[in-house]
Amino acid sequence: MIWKSVLAILVIGFLAGAYFVRTKPLDTASLHIDPETAERPGVPGHVLLRAGGDIEPPVFEMDASALALRVEAVILSTPRTEKLAGELADGYASYVTRSALWGFPDIASVKVVEIEEGKSSLIVLSRLRYGQMDMGVNRARVEDWLAQLSR
Q1: Is the pLDDT higher at 118 or at 21?
Q2: Cα–Cα distance for residue pair 76/84, rounded to 1 Å
Q3: CA–CA separation, 56 vs 145, rounded Å?
Q4: pTM of the model
């Protein structure tokens, strides 16, 4: 009979954890950061697309305003993703993507930069909000965005 009590406690803990990560408000002030000036995290679950970062940024043959429109469309087409704060056209924006099962939030701060006339690039800092490891999910998401933008 004691195993039923233990099982009930585990199920309640599981449901409470799921409820917590799905409903806890995200602190926009601390999560919406400029990825160009952000410190390099250097921890698992974080990926930095920036010169000298984890992924070198590509150069796109379009101006920054056109790239910003494409980037936002690609990001917002990602399942379970919504804008957290900011506007790409005004500097940078941050987005939250939640995992399918638990609803864990991953935060991506994105900035589009003009390199020269008709050429631009982007800077992305994507990171997990809870835990220590994401099994490569943030990196895979950023690489998928880049693949879609390169088409």
Answers
A1: 118
A2: 11
A3: 14
A4: 0.89
